[in-house]
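Human:
Focus on the backbone:
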Amino acid sequence: MNRRILTVASGAVQQLRGIKKHPFPVTFENVVFPPNGQMKLPSMPTEPFYDAEKGEYKYKTTKRMIEARGVEEIHTDLIHKQYGLAAISGGFISSADFKFLEDRINKNLIDKQFAIWRVDPPWLPRTKKAQGTRLGGGKGSIQKYVTPVRANRIILEVGGHITEVEARAFLMYLCERFSFPAEFVSEEILQERRQEEARIRANNTNKFDWDKVIKYNMQNCTSWLSNYDIMWRGKYK
């Protein structure tokens, strides 16, 4: 019995004395820094600049919800191939949201890390009437300006000498700031998502898809489908 205990104990000691395996250190050989050398997020203006000499002036308009409808077709890739935030569905970003993101992200960036905006400064006016004002009398005064974004739009990017764990640590909770759903994305996540979509399209054996249903007007669907359903195949609203 004692011999057996000694044998087990000696085997445990040999495992403890074995070579410890450590993960390979992360290298940043392919990192591309911004060409202008600006590492921090710049401040977004709260309102657009109007040149009076050119006849530009402030104007009031409707909410223009169409600006946030559908899917983004251009700004869907990460320029620096690292990490960022992307919109899941359309919405509007206010100047207060830009200020909050700027303060939080610039505070968390350390040496050889950078962040860039991928959206335009606020340009769409939002009007509001004073409290207690009677109905009628036209639109109220301009309260603020917002930036519309569509689904899959890259909002900002973070890169440099930073790992995915570090980027997730201070980007995930920023998604709760937006009035629309947003998500953390990386170059690897986007590539895997596109490969999975291509695999599903290639291996799909279902004969009934949006293209065939619309082409043959099954169950008279074109009479109740909107133009946006036909354009985006029912995926976006």
Remarks:
- Residues 4-9 have pLDDT under 50 and may be disordered.
- Helices lie at 2-16, 95-108, 164-171, 187-203, 210-215, 227-232.
- The chain is about 30% helix and 15% strand.
